[in-house]
Write a structure and sequence with these properties.
CATH topology of the largest domain: Glutathione S-transferase Yfyf (Class Pi), Chain A, domain 2
CATH architecture of the largest domain: Up-down Bundle
Distance between the termini: 62 Å
Strand content: 5-15%
Helix content: 40-55%
Oligomer: single chain
């Protein structure tokens, strides 16, 4: 086919300018989209910002996004049980304003993503820690595992089937959610223009993941069993993304994804949404950092 015929074919398919990747990528223009003003291929602090530290033993620096809500839920569930030492202060890291690139936040999370947590409790010191040295934890999965194990709540502590199942679903979420958020969510809701190929590609994967959950939850009230005691961090971490998605809280995409088809996921999501701690977590008041 001649070049002219190729061009005509591309135009007929709405492909007026076919992108050809260069041999070496350089950031030579704005890529558009909701977060284009803060996106960069480099890491590290961009400005000085000292983070406030409250009087509670735990200091949370976050935002009420799906990733942030995960930590909120566990902290509020611990508060619901009046767990001593789990008191916390929560501060807002406004990612649209670039707060995650402040020097104080980068010091506790070099990846500049929310949430991040600092444990100032002196009881965390052990033979391998400097006495009284605060412990910084980043990545939502690590935060939930750290807190659940520290307080002995919402995670099976003994090696065996129950613990393996919980950790497997936690890691499933950590590996799967980027396809939902950075993939489907970005191209469906945030990209500067709708593009058929990435929307189709990530919609297919998002629906496949919902089907994985739907099949599993057909036989399980919670991710790791049917008893109230089986509710654990796997439910919290998955609900923040997939539970909110099927309840119509993310990307205005419930109809597009036909979420009502996933009846078992929706039943599970509604049950968790009714928990008092979860109700507080999704709209958690966050203090300003400056």
């Amino acid at each position: 086919m001649s070049q002219d015929n190729n061009a005509s074919s591309n135009q007929a398919n709405g492909q007026n300018d076919t992108y050809v990747p260069p041999k070496i990528w350089v950031q030579d223009k704005d890529n558009g989209g909701k977060f284009s003003s803060i996106n960069s291929p480099t890491a590290g602090a961009r400005h000085e910002q000292v983070l406030p530290v409250g009087e509670a033993p735990l200091q949370l620096y976050s935002l009420n996004t799906p990733n942030g809500v995960k930590a909120n839920i566990l902290l509020e569930e611990l508060a619901e049980l009046s767990v001593k030492g789990a008191e916390y202060d929560a501060y807002k890291i406004d990612i649209s304003e670039g707060d995650q690139f402040g020097s104080g936040f980068v010091a506790i999370n070099p990846n500049s993503k929310i949430p991040a947590l600092v444990d100032h409790s002196s009881s965390t010191a052990n033979a391998n820690d400097d006495a009284g040295e605060p412990i910084a934890i980043f990545e939502s999965g690590a935060i939930l595992m750290y807190l659940a194990e520290k307080f002995g709540k919402f995670i099976p502590l003994s090696a065996g089937k129950k613990r393996a199942e919980c950790l497997s679903w936690v890691m499933w979420q950590m590996g799967s959610a980027p396809f939902l958020g950075g993939g489907f969510g970005h191209f469906y809701a945030y990209a500067p223009e709708p593009l058929e190929y990435p929307i189709n590609r990530y919609t297919m994967e998002a629906k496949r993941q919902l089907d994985v959950l739907n099949i599993h939850l057909k036989e399980n009230a919670y991710m790791c069993g049917n008893d109230e005691a089986d509710y654990n961090i796997a439910d919290m971490i998955i609900w923040a993304w997939y539970g909110q998605l099927v309840l119509g809280k993310l990307y205005d995409a419930a109809e597009f994804l036909q979420v009502d088809d996933y009846v078992h996921v929706k039943r599970w999501a509604q049950k968790i949404a009714e928990r008092p701690a979860v109700k507080r977590a999704v709209d958690l008041p966050l203090k300003p950092i400056g």
